[in-house]
Amino acid sequence: MRATWIPNGQRQQVMTPGTNRRRTIFGAVDLQSGRFLYQVARKAINATFTAFCEQLLAAYPAAPVVANVIAIGESDRAGPSGRALAGVPSTR
Question: For every one of its 92 residues, what pLDDT tens digit does the chain have, with 9 covering 90 and above?
């Protein structure tokens, strides 16, 4: 939106989008360096989350531990994702 001038008593036509383009953004911050890693996905499904975790592990291969803080929604219980990461010793 931006400010515009129209005569008093007239209505301004406002263009509205047809449909919202929903995206999920997975992100991580390295607390020591401030480096920000992210991945944009069309859907928040197990495969995209696991791919992000693999990207995170690849970015820090020598890290003793990569800690994940995960906000879990009503429909997402991270069951398959949690099981996939359970076998990776450097994640908690």
Answer: 567 778 888 888 777 777 777 888 888 888 888 888 898 988 888 888 888 888 888 998 888 877 777 665 544 445 665 665 566 555 55
Domains of the chain, residue spans: 24-86
Residue 40, CA atoms < 13 Å, CB-side half-sphere: 3
The kind and range of the H/E element at 29 are strand 24-29
Per-position DSSP letters for 61-91, written without gaps between them: TT-S-B-------SS---HHHHHHHHT-TTB
Number of helices (H), then strands (E), belonging to the chain: the values are 2, 2
Residue 83 class from Cβ within 10 Å (0-12 exposed, 13-18 middle, 19+ buried)? exposed
